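writing this on my phone so excuse typos. first protein, seq and then structure
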Amino acid sequence: MTERVNQESMGCAFQTGIIALLLLIVTMSCFLFSGPGYGQDDVVRLVEKKQKELREKEEALKKEEERINALKKDVEEKIEKYTKLLTQLESTVKKIDQSRDEKLTHLVKVYEAMPPEDAAARISVLDENTAVRIMRMMKSKKAGAVMAAMEPRKVAAITRELSAGPGISH
Protein backbone atom coordinates (compact mmCIF):
# COMPACT_ATOMS: atom_id res chain seq x y z
CA MET A 1 0.00 0.00 0.00
CA THR A 2 2.82 2.42 0.80
CA GLU A 3 4.21 1.57 -2.55
CA ARG A 4 0.95 2.54 -4.23
CA VAL A 5 0.85 5.83 -2.32
CA ASN A 6 4.44 6.53 -3.36
CA GLN A 7 3.56 5.83 -7.01
CA GLU A 8 0.51 8.07 -6.84
CA SER A 9 2.46 10.89 -5.21
CA MET A 10 5.23 10.50 -7.80
CA GLY A 11 2.64 10.59 -10.60
CA CYS A 12 1.13 13.73 -9.08
CA ALA A 13 4.56 15.33 -8.76
CA PHE A 14 5.32 14.44 -12.38
CA GLN A 15 2.07 16.00 -13.57
CA THR A 16 2.73 19.10 -11.51
CA GLY A 17 6.24 19.33 -12.99
CA ILE A 18 4.86 19.11 -16.54
CA ILE A 19 2.26 21.78 -15.83
CA ALA A 20 4.94 24.05 -14.36
CA LEU A 21 7.15 23.49 -17.41
CA LEU A 22 4.29 24.30 -19.79
CA LEU A 23 3.49 27.49 -17.82
CA LEU A 24 7.14 28.47 -18.01
CA ILE A 25 7.22 27.93 -21.78
CA VAL A 26 4.01 29.93 -22.29
CA THR A 27 5.30 32.74 -20.05
CA MET A 28 8.63 32.88 -21.85
CA SER A 29 6.90 32.89 -25.25
CA CYS A 30 4.65 35.75 -24.18
CA PHE A 31 7.62 37.63 -22.77
CA LEU A 32 9.75 37.09 -25.88
CA PHE A 33 7.11 38.04 -28.42
CA SER A 34 5.40 40.79 -26.47
CA GLY A 35 8.30 42.17 -24.45
CA PRO A 36 10.05 45.45 -25.11
CA GLY A 37 12.53 43.88 -27.59
CA TYR A 38 9.96 42.10 -29.79
CA GLY A 39 7.06 44.04 -31.12
CA GLN A 40 4.59 42.94 -33.72
CA ASP A 41 6.80 44.46 -36.44
CA ASP A 42 9.74 42.37 -35.26
CA VAL A 43 7.69 39.19 -35.44
CA VAL A 44 6.50 40.11 -38.95
CA ARG A 45 10.08 40.80 -40.06
CA LEU A 46 11.22 37.50 -38.58
CA VAL A 47 8.47 35.64 -40.44
CA GLU A 48 9.30 37.49 -43.68
CA LYS A 49 12.99 36.67 -43.23
CA LYS A 50 12.19 32.99 -42.78
CA GLN A 51 9.93 33.06 -45.83
CA LYS A 52 12.71 34.67 -47.88
CA GLU A 53 15.17 32.00 -46.72
CA LEU A 54 12.69 29.30 -47.69
CA ARG A 55 12.19 30.86 -51.16
CA GLU A 56 15.98 31.04 -51.65
CA LYS A 57 16.38 27.41 -50.65
CA GLU A 58 13.51 26.43 -52.93
CA GLU A 59 15.12 28.32 -55.83
CA ALA A 60 18.48 26.67 -55.16
CA LEU A 61 16.81 23.26 -55.14
CA LYS A 62 15.01 24.07 -58.39
CA LYS A 63 18.30 25.08 -60.04
CA GLU A 64 19.99 21.92 -58.77
CA GLU A 65 17.12 19.83 -60.14
CA GLU A 66 17.47 21.54 -63.54
CA ARG A 67 21.22 20.88 -63.51
CA ILE A 68 20.67 17.21 -62.64
CA ASN A 69 18.03 16.87 -65.38
CA ALA A 70 20.44 18.41 -67.91
CA LEU A 71 23.16 15.97 -66.82
CA LYS A 72 20.71 13.09 -67.04
CA LYS A 73 19.74 14.10 -70.58
CA ASP A 74 23.40 14.40 -71.56
CA VAL A 75 24.17 10.94 -70.16
CA GLU A 76 21.17 9.42 -71.95
CA GLU A 77 22.27 11.01 -75.24
CA LYS A 78 25.79 9.66 -74.80
CA ILE A 79 24.46 6.19 -73.99
CA GLU A 80 22.37 6.28 -77.17
CA LYS A 81 25.36 7.51 -79.22
CA TYR A 82 27.69 4.83 -77.85
CA THR A 83 25.06 2.14 -78.28
CA LYS A 84 24.80 3.06 -81.96
CA LEU A 85 28.60 3.02 -82.26
CA LEU A 86 28.75 -0.38 -80.60
CA THR A 87 26.12 -1.72 -83.01
CA GLN A 88 28.13 -0.37 -85.95
CA LEU A 89 31.33 -1.91 -84.60
CA GLU A 90 29.64 -5.27 -84.09
CA SER A 91 28.31 -5.12 -87.64
CA THR A 92 31.76 -4.27 -89.00
CA VAL A 93 33.41 -7.08 -87.03
CA LYS A 94 30.76 -9.49 -88.29
CA LYS A 95 31.44 -8.42 -91.90
CA ILE A 96 35.20 -8.82 -91.38
CA ASP A 97 34.70 -12.28 -89.86
CA GLN A 98 32.39 -13.25 -92.71
CA SER A 99 34.91 -12.02 -95.29
CA ARG A 100 37.73 -13.89 -93.53
CA ASP A 101 35.63 -17.06 -93.43
CA GLU A 102 34.82 -16.72 -97.13
CA LYS A 103 38.51 -16.30 -97.94
CA LEU A 104 39.40 -19.29 -95.77
CA THR A 105 36.68 -21.40 -97.41
CA HIS A 106 38.08 -20.48 -100.83
CA LEU A 107 41.62 -21.28 -99.66
CA VAL A 108 40.48 -24.68 -98.36
CA LYS A 109 38.95 -25.46 -101.75
CA VAL A 110 42.24 -24.49 -103.42
CA TYR A 111 44.20 -26.87 -101.16
CA GLU A 112 41.65 -29.63 -101.71
CA ALA A 113 42.07 -29.23 -105.46
CA MET A 114 45.87 -29.69 -105.23
CA PRO A 115 47.52 -33.07 -105.27
CA PRO A 116 47.93 -34.21 -101.61
CA GLU A 117 51.77 -34.02 -101.76
CA ASP A 118 51.70 -30.39 -103.00
CA ALA A 119 49.09 -29.38 -100.42
CA ALA A 120 51.12 -31.13 -97.68
CA ALA A 121 54.29 -29.28 -98.65
CA ARG A 122 52.54 -25.90 -98.58
CA ILE A 123 50.51 -26.49 -95.40
CA SER A 124 53.61 -27.75 -93.58
CA VAL A 125 55.28 -24.33 -93.85
CA LEU A 126 52.25 -22.42 -92.56
CA ASP A 127 51.94 -21.40 -88.92
CA GLU A 128 50.20 -24.02 -86.83
CA ASN A 129 46.95 -22.06 -86.28
CA THR A 130 46.44 -21.45 -90.00
CA ALA A 131 47.30 -25.07 -90.85
CA VAL A 132 44.81 -26.32 -88.24
CA ARG A 133 42.04 -24.02 -89.50
CA ILE A 134 42.58 -25.21 -93.06
CA MET A 135 42.73 -28.90 -92.09
CA ARG A 136 39.62 -28.53 -89.91
CA MET A 137 37.62 -27.22 -92.87
CA MET A 138 38.90 -29.76 -95.40
CA LYS A 139 36.86 -32.83 -96.28
CA SER A 140 38.05 -35.78 -94.19
CA LYS A 141 39.26 -37.82 -97.14
CA LYS A 142 41.31 -34.91 -98.56
CA ALA A 143 42.70 -33.95 -95.12
CA GLY A 144 43.77 -37.56 -94.53
CA ALA A 145 45.59 -37.71 -97.85
CA VAL A 146 47.36 -34.39 -97.17
CA MET A 147 48.37 -35.42 -93.63
CA ALA A 148 49.70 -38.74 -94.95
CA ALA A 149 52.10 -36.77 -97.12
CA MET A 150 53.28 -34.47 -94.28
CA GLU A 151 56.21 -34.79 -91.91
CA PRO A 152 55.15 -36.80 -88.81
CA ARG A 153 56.02 -34.03 -86.30
CA LYS A 154 53.88 -31.49 -88.14
CA VAL A 155 51.03 -34.03 -88.35
CA ALA A 156 51.33 -34.67 -84.60
CA ALA A 157 51.15 -30.94 -83.81
CA ILE A 158 48.17 -30.42 -86.12
CA THR A 159 46.44 -33.53 -84.72
CA ARG A 160 46.94 -32.26 -81.17
CA GLU A 161 45.28 -28.96 -82.06
CA LEU A 162 42.50 -30.60 -84.08
CA SER A 163 41.64 -32.87 -81.16
CA ALA A 164 41.46 -29.89 -78.79
CA GLY A 165 38.43 -28.52 -80.62
CA PRO A 166 37.74 -25.11 -82.12
CA GLY A 167 39.28 -22.15 -80.36
CA ILE A 168 41.08 -24.26 -77.74
CA SER A 169 44.82 -24.58 -77.86
CA HIS A 170 47.38 -26.39 -75.75
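second protein below, same order as before
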Amino acid sequence: MSSRLDARATRHYFDSAFHCPAVKVLPNEYYVAAGEDIMISTVLGSCVAACIRDPRTGVGGMNHFMLPEGDTDTPASATMRYGAFAMEVLINELLKAGAARERLEAKVFGGGAVLSAMQQLNIGERNARFVLNYLKTEGIPVLAQDLGDVRARRIGYFPRDGRVMVRKMAPHHHKAEELIARREQAAAQTAQAKAQTPPRVERFEAPRFERFARPAPAAT
Protein backbone atom coordinates (compact mmCIF):
# COMPACT_ATOMS: atom_id res chain seq x y z
CA MET A 1 0.00 0.00 0.00
CA SER A 2 1.48 3.31 -1.06
CA SER A 3 1.58 6.13 1.46
CA ARG A 4 0.31 9.61 0.83
CA LEU A 5 3.89 10.81 0.41
CA ASP A 6 4.53 8.14 -2.23
CA ALA A 7 1.37 9.23 -4.09
CA ARG A 8 2.42 12.88 -4.42
CA ALA A 9 3.26 13.68 -8.04
CA THR A 10 6.94 14.40 -8.68
CA ARG A 11 7.17 14.79 -12.48
CA HIS A 12 7.94 18.49 -12.83
CA TYR A 13 8.58 20.10 -16.21
CA PHE A 14 8.27 23.43 -18.03
CA ASP A 15 5.17 23.69 -20.22
CA SER A 16 6.11 25.46 -23.44
CA ALA A 17 2.51 26.04 -24.51
CA PHE A 18 1.57 27.98 -21.35
CA HIS A 19 5.11 29.18 -20.56
CA CYS A 20 4.99 28.13 -16.93
CA PRO A 21 6.28 25.48 -14.53
CA ALA A 22 4.07 22.38 -14.46
CA VAL A 23 3.72 19.01 -12.75
CA LYS A 24 2.21 15.91 -14.28
CA VAL A 25 -0.23 13.87 -12.18
CA LEU A 26 -0.42 10.20 -13.14
CA PRO A 27 -3.17 7.76 -12.11
CA ASN A 28 -3.23 7.15 -8.35
CA GLU A 29 -1.36 10.41 -7.66
CA TYR A 30 -2.21 13.88 -6.37
CA TYR A 31 -0.53 17.25 -6.12
CA VAL A 32 -1.18 20.28 -3.91
CA ALA A 33 0.23 23.75 -4.59
CA ALA A 34 0.37 26.32 -1.81
CA GLY A 35 -0.23 29.42 -3.90
CA GLU A 36 2.68 29.10 -6.32
CA ASP A 37 2.29 29.82 -10.03
CA ILE A 38 2.21 26.29 -11.42
CA MET A 39 0.04 24.23 -13.74
CA ILE A 40 -1.08 20.73 -12.69
CA SER A 41 -1.73 18.50 -15.69
CA THR A 42 -3.11 15.04 -16.35
CA VAL A 43 -4.71 12.91 -19.07
CA LEU A 44 -8.05 11.25 -18.39
CA GLY A 45 -10.08 8.43 -19.91
CA SER A 46 -12.54 6.73 -17.58
CA CYS A 47 -10.57 8.09 -14.62
CA VAL A 48 -11.68 11.23 -12.81
CA ALA A 49 -9.66 14.20 -11.58
CA ALA A 50 -11.02 16.53 -8.92
CA CYS A 51 -9.53 20.03 -8.88
CA ILE A 52 -10.17 21.65 -5.49
CA ARG A 53 -9.00 25.01 -4.14
CA ASP A 54 -9.46 27.70 -1.55
CA PRO A 55 -9.98 30.89 -3.59
CA ARG A 56 -8.84 33.16 -0.76
CA THR A 57 -5.43 31.57 -0.20
CA GLY A 58 -4.86 30.16 -3.69
CA VAL A 59 -4.08 26.76 -2.18
CA GLY A 60 -5.31 24.10 -4.58
CA GLY A 61 -4.67 20.65 -5.91
CA MET A 62 -5.70 17.77 -8.10
CA ASN A 63 -6.05 14.01 -7.74
CA HIS A 64 -6.49 11.27 -10.33
CA PHE A 65 -8.38 8.11 -9.38
CA MET A 66 -9.32 5.03 -11.40
CA LEU A 67 -12.22 3.43 -9.53
CA PRO A 68 -14.93 4.84 -7.25
CA GLU A 69 -14.69 2.76 -4.09
CA GLY A 70 -12.88 -0.31 -2.83
CA ASP A 71 -13.83 -2.90 -0.28
CA THR A 72 -13.77 -0.90 2.93
CA ASP A 73 -12.93 -4.08 4.88
CA THR A 74 -9.59 -4.60 3.12
CA PRO A 75 -6.35 -2.57 3.41
CA ALA A 76 -6.09 -2.48 -0.42
CA SER A 77 -8.98 0.01 -0.55
CA ALA A 78 -6.79 2.60 1.22
CA THR A 79 -4.89 3.54 -1.94
CA MET A 80 -5.10 6.45 -4.35
CA ARG A 81 -6.55 4.09 -6.98
CA TYR A 82 -9.94 4.47 -5.29
CA GLY A 83 -11.92 7.69 -5.25
CA ALA A 84 -12.97 7.48 -1.63
CA PHE A 85 -9.34 7.45 -0.48
CA ALA A 86 -8.07 9.85 -3.17
CA MET A 87 -10.64 12.48 -2.25
CA GLU A 88 -9.88 12.20 1.46
CA VAL A 89 -6.15 12.53 0.82
CA LEU A 90 -6.53 15.58 -1.43
CA ILE A 91 -8.81 17.43 0.98
CA ASN A 92 -6.62 16.67 3.99
CA GLU A 93 -3.48 17.80 2.17
CA LEU A 94 -5.19 21.04 1.12
CA LEU A 95 -6.10 21.76 4.73
CA LYS A 96 -2.52 21.05 5.82
CA ALA A 97 -1.28 23.53 3.21
CA GLY A 98 -3.47 26.31 4.59
CA ALA A 99 -6.84 25.97 2.87
CA ALA A 100 -10.04 26.44 4.86
CA ARG A 101 -12.59 23.65 4.48
CA GLU A 102 -15.57 26.02 4.40
CA ARG A 103 -14.09 27.89 1.42
CA LEU A 104 -13.22 24.86 -0.75
CA GLU A 105 -14.64 24.75 -4.28
CA ALA A 106 -14.27 22.08 -6.94
CA LYS A 107 -14.12 21.44 -10.66
CA VAL A 108 -14.29 17.83 -11.88
CA PHE A 109 -13.32 16.14 -15.13
CA GLY A 110 -13.11 12.75 -16.83
CA GLY A 111 -15.34 9.73 -16.46
CA GLY A 112 -15.34 9.01 -20.18
CA ALA A 113 -16.04 5.76 -22.02
CA VAL A 114 -12.95 5.79 -24.20
CA LEU A 115 -12.60 2.01 -24.63
CA SER A 116 -15.30 -0.59 -25.23
CA ALA A 117 -14.34 -2.48 -22.05
CA MET A 118 -14.97 0.67 -20.03
CA GLN A 119 -18.41 1.07 -21.63
CA GLN A 120 -19.39 -2.45 -20.63
CA LEU A 121 -18.32 -1.97 -17.01
CA ASN A 122 -19.58 1.63 -16.78
CA ILE A 123 -16.40 2.58 -14.92
CA GLY A 124 -16.38 6.15 -16.24
CA GLU A 125 -20.03 6.70 -15.39
CA ARG A 126 -19.55 5.23 -11.92
CA ASN A 127 -16.49 7.43 -11.29
CA ALA A 128 -18.38 10.54 -12.38
CA ARG A 129 -21.38 9.73 -10.22
CA PHE A 130 -19.14 8.99 -7.26
CA VAL A 131 -17.21 12.27 -7.34
CA LEU A 132 -20.37 14.39 -7.61
CA ASN A 133 -22.04 12.51 -4.76
CA TYR A 134 -18.90 12.74 -2.62
CA LEU A 135 -18.58 16.50 -3.05
CA LYS A 136 -22.28 17.01 -2.39
CA THR A 137 -22.02 15.00 0.82
CA GLU A 138 -18.96 17.01 1.91
CA GLY A 139 -20.68 20.31 1.13
CA ILE A 140 -18.07 21.37 -1.45
CA PRO A 141 -19.68 23.24 -4.38
CA VAL A 142 -18.88 22.10 -7.92
CA LEU A 143 -18.28 25.20 -10.02
CA ALA A 144 -17.63 23.36 -13.27
CA GLN A 145 -17.67 19.83 -14.64
CA ASP A 146 -16.83 18.07 -17.89
CA LEU A 147 -17.76 14.41 -17.40
CA GLY A 148 -18.69 11.52 -19.68
CA ASP A 149 -18.24 11.52 -23.49
CA VAL A 150 -16.13 9.02 -25.47
CA ARG A 151 -12.96 11.07 -25.85
CA ALA A 152 -9.89 11.35 -23.69
CA ARG A 153 -9.12 14.71 -22.09
CA ARG A 154 -5.94 16.58 -21.29
CA ILE A 155 -6.42 18.81 -18.25
CA GLY A 156 -4.34 21.80 -17.25
CA TYR A 157 -5.26 23.25 -13.83
CA PHE A 158 -3.94 26.52 -12.42
CA PRO A 159 -4.76 26.31 -8.70
CA ARG A 160 -3.68 29.84 -7.83
CA ASP A 161 -6.51 31.44 -9.86
CA GLY A 162 -8.73 28.39 -10.51
CA ARG A 163 -8.45 28.30 -14.30
CA VAL A 164 -8.77 24.94 -16.04
CA MET A 165 -7.82 24.26 -19.65
CA VAL A 166 -9.50 21.18 -21.17
CA ARG A 167 -8.44 19.72 -24.51
CA LYS A 168 -10.43 16.79 -25.82
CA MET A 169 -8.41 14.45 -27.97
CA ALA A 170 -9.55 13.06 -31.30
CA PRO A 171 -11.32 9.69 -31.00
CA HIS A 172 -8.49 8.00 -32.90
CA HIS A 173 -5.52 9.72 -31.31
CA HIS A 174 -3.31 6.61 -31.34
CA LYS A 175 -0.70 7.73 -28.82
CA ALA A 176 -3.37 8.76 -26.33
CA GLU A 177 -5.33 5.56 -26.96
CA GLU A 178 -2.31 3.37 -26.27
CA LEU A 179 -1.50 5.24 -23.06
CA ILE A 180 -5.05 5.19 -21.79
CA ALA A 181 -5.62 1.58 -22.89
CA ARG A 182 -2.90 0.34 -20.54
CA ARG A 183 -4.39 2.29 -17.64
CA GLU A 184 -7.99 1.38 -18.43
CA GLN A 185 -7.24 -2.32 -18.79
CA ALA A 186 -5.65 -2.32 -15.34
CA ALA A 187 -8.76 -0.64 -13.93
CA ALA A 188 -11.04 -3.08 -15.75
CA GLN A 189 -9.14 -6.08 -14.40
CA THR A 190 -9.42 -4.73 -10.86
CA ALA A 191 -13.15 -4.08 -11.27
CA GLN A 192 -13.78 -7.54 -12.73
CA ALA A 193 -11.76 -9.25 -10.01
CA LYS A 194 -13.74 -7.37 -7.38
CA ALA A 195 -17.05 -8.35 -9.00
CA GLN A 196 -16.04 -12.03 -9.17
CA THR A 197 -14.79 -12.25 -5.60
CA PRO A 198 -17.37 -14.18 -3.58
CA PRO A 199 -18.61 -12.49 -0.42
CA ARG A 200 -16.77 -13.50 2.69
CA VAL A 201 -18.81 -15.61 5.06
CA GLU A 202 -17.90 -15.81 8.69
CA ARG A 203 -18.60 -19.16 10.24
CA PHE A 204 -19.58 -19.46 13.85
CA GLU A 205 -19.60 -22.54 15.98
CA ALA A 206 -22.96 -23.64 17.31
CA PRO A 207 -23.53 -22.07 20.71
CA ARG A 208 -22.90 -24.28 23.64
CA PHE A 209 -25.61 -24.71 26.22
CA GLU A 210 -25.04 -25.78 29.79
CA ARG A 211 -27.57 -28.25 31.08
CA PHE A 212 -28.73 -28.03 34.67
CA ALA A 213 -30.43 -30.78 36.57
CA ARG A 214 -33.92 -29.92 37.67
CA PRO A 215 -33.76 -28.81 41.33
CA ALA A 216 -35.08 -31.37 43.82
CA PRO A 217 -38.35 -30.41 45.55
CA ALA A 218 -37.87 -28.78 48.93
CA ALA A 219 -38.45 -31.02 51.94
CA THR A 220 -41.65 -30.36 53.84
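The chain has five helices and ten strands. thats all i got for now
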